[in-house]
């Protein structure tokens, strides 16, 4: 092809057709420029296509992480709701002074001392933020949702940390005030086995009653009755944002 164009130029010069030669030369330059532009456009298209594929891979991972989070949020919600309901009933019993009639209830409400933490799966989001592709979703609905999602995660983390640390401190204090061997035996050892021990049933009951009537115990129960509702609300809020993230990712992936 190059030889063909060179031959045309030589023929025009040899025939003295300078004007036509310059026109031809300009046309040839124009064709070369057009060729370069087309090549650049194809290259840009290929790079953009590769970037879109890479971005979608990151988004698929984020979607998978978000689905994992939602499953964990549902599980935590069920657990906290059950404990909160027990603690609310125990709190009512305290106000009604019917603790002696609800020994089993107070035994069950002791679950308020258990540490429960939401552990989000953030690997996909962190990987995308540290990549060269995060800019492709800047100022989009997905960008706003992801920012909101991880802001709520931070707030949940602080909320849970505050409650769990308080419960741990109260439990540690209770351990200095009581020998919990009788309390734990009364709570977890089958009654038939307790009857065979030297310790009388009255001693178990009295120790457990003293333990559950102590302010440190009741403070945690009362806090859980209120605080868990707040946590459950934040879980629900995070789940809603997570579902919106999945919808936005599906739109991008399907395009």
From TrEMBL:
Database matches in InterPro entries: DUF6090
Keyword Membrane: yes
The name this protein goes by in its record: Uncharacterized protein
The entry's keywords: Membrane, Transmembrane, Transmembrane helix
Domain of life per record: Bacteria
Pfam family, one: DUF6090
TM regions (residue ranges): 21-40
